[in-house]
Amino acid sequence: MRVNNASAAAESATPLAQRMLASTSKGESVPAVLMLEDGTVFYGRGSGAKGSAVGEVCFNTSLEGYFEVLTDPSYAGQIITMTYPQIGNYGIDLDDAQLSCAPGASSRPALRGMVVRDMCHTPSNWRSSVSVPDYLKQHNIVAIEGIDTRALVRHLRDNGSQKGIVSTETLDLDELRAQLDEAPGLVGQNFVESVSCNGTYGFGVANLPAAHSFADAPAPASRHRVVAYDCGIKRGILEGLARAGCDLTVVPWDTPAEDVLAQNPDGVFLSNGPGDPDAVEGTYTQVKKLLGKVPVFGICLGHQMISLACGAQIEKLKFGHRGGNQPVMNLVSGRVEITAQNHGFGLVWDSLGEIVPELSDGYDQHPADGDLRFWVRAGVAPVVRNEQFGLIRLTHVNLNDGTAEGIQLLDVPAFCVQYHPEAAPGPTDAHYLFTAFAHLMDGDQDYLNIDIAADRLAGWNFAEEVSHA
Q1: Which of 155, 396, 420, 431 is catalytic?
Q2: What is the mean predicted confidence (pLDDT) over 174-195?
Q3: Does residue 420 have an active-site annotation?
Q4: Does 65 score more than 90 pLDDT?
């Protein structure tokens, strides 16, 4: 068993240390502990609600946007570690929440717990209405601060994301181990059904937040009717689709394809969502019935739903991609996009079919090691022949680890990416994907041929100023 910072934890628990801490902006705190499944232990201080929480411990490398991360439904079942050292210094504006927009939806975030190096208890920002620690306490979310998050993240990178428990209730390691062993793991669980809406609702331009008008330009009128599968959809994605001209009807994760097609939509959108995609059979079996009958666009879990509908294999990544600085090569445009991501599973590209040499610059084999950066170096967007839906092109590759980040079905109107274009939080390099979906619904065969640099400024009040600079 590896124990980190045990002496510091003991010192911080002394009466003198507690009195000294209470006189600072931190205020009074209680000892807390994080224990990983492999026995690694980190000691710190509670910085949220008191209690215990078990979940998969993972990490996010974003430098900002902690509240959007905190309220992302895709973190259901997980304890999120923020790698940036100070969290909470600009507080929270509730208008930035990424929680479900469904009528009657819970206001409690879906994640299990939070881990940070240093939590700011006294934020300074004109938009802030509540501090992160107070928000966590209000929503009964356990958090720990004061641990060496660099050591934790290195451990997770070396050994993989794993189950863990964070507690302020007990520091007894045997008791923590017993609770940890009793809790189920992430693989095989369907978390989507816990974060999806219970019924149909609408979302359009009228639902865009007025509080963001200082940055967002007025949205254009809606021109496409889109049905969106809610697998844990972020509010920012709904807003991005609305700003791209989509009038949305949001439906539960397992809505029958027949019910969707009966609405005669211009397109279908498949959202992000938490957990193991193989466990979300209620969605990808419906997607299989939709492909070829209506334009389809998927993001994150939606990308995995399209892949599974095509008969692909999905693998669990060692520690996933979570953060706002993931470099992705667009094989179609030849440009690199800095992207926001949040997923622990990925498509096994070569499981979709055999390479078609005449459409892959003469190459007839998948790279033996599975590293898709081979295609980046070759400057080729390879095409495979899928037994169910014909030709499929690899469009995007992660430059950090060579995994698949996007595909385009060439014989049916559908495409998807593993990352997030809505910039909530994150960069706007991938904003063009919302525009591409609109072009696909317009019938444009070359819908991915978009000036990414110009499109990333679309919808911002400063766009015209920048274009004339």
Answers
A1: 420
A2: 94
A3: yes
A4: yes
